[in-house]
Amino acid sequence: MSALTKRDIIVDITDKLGHRELTQTLVTEIIDQFVETVTARLSNGDKVIIRNFGVFQVHEVKAKVGRNPREPDKNIAIPASAVVKFRAGKELKAEVAKALPLLREKNA
Q1: Is 4 left (phi over 0), alpha (psi -120 to 50) or beta?
Q2: DSSP assignment string, 2-63
Q3: Which domains does the chain have, with CATH numbers?
Q4: Could you say which of 6, 49, 62, 91 has the lowest number of CB atoms within 10 Å?
Q5: Rounded to 5 degrees, what are φ and ψ at 3?
């Protein structure tokens, strides 16, 4: 299994839709704008729903007290924060489920 990078996505889209005169520069601009739009909406606390893929939503992680393993007697205040959670859609879950045999083979 390997990682998929932004560059890989750009090349793949350009190759698949090249007959429509899409250049890698244009695809890069589209992906950058997509990321910028999603980021802006999430930073406003909005939910981002991409049908057949999933939902991105901002959740609050409450403040808590942590400990440094090197100094267990000292408490460390960890402030509240906002994090992005992703919930996969039904179609994505079904496709990802097909990877289970590959994962088991890799870990065997």
Answers
A1: beta
A2: ----HHHHHHHHHHHTGGGT--HHHHHHHHHHHHHHHHHHHHTT--EEETTTEEEEEEEEPP
A3: 6-107 (4.10.520.10)
A4: 62
A5: -95, 150
Per-residue pLDDT of the chain (108 residues; tens, 9 = 90+): 589 999 999 999 999 987 777 889 999 999 999 999 999 999 999 999 999 999 999 999 999 999 888 888 889 999 999 999 999 999 999 999 988 888 888 777
Q: Per the confidence metrics, is the pTM higher than 0.70?
A: yes
Phi-psi sector, 89: left (phi>0), alpha (psi -120 to 50), beta: beta
With 0-12 / 13-18 / 19 or more C-beta atoms within 10 angstroms meaning exposed / middle / buried, residue 35 is exposed
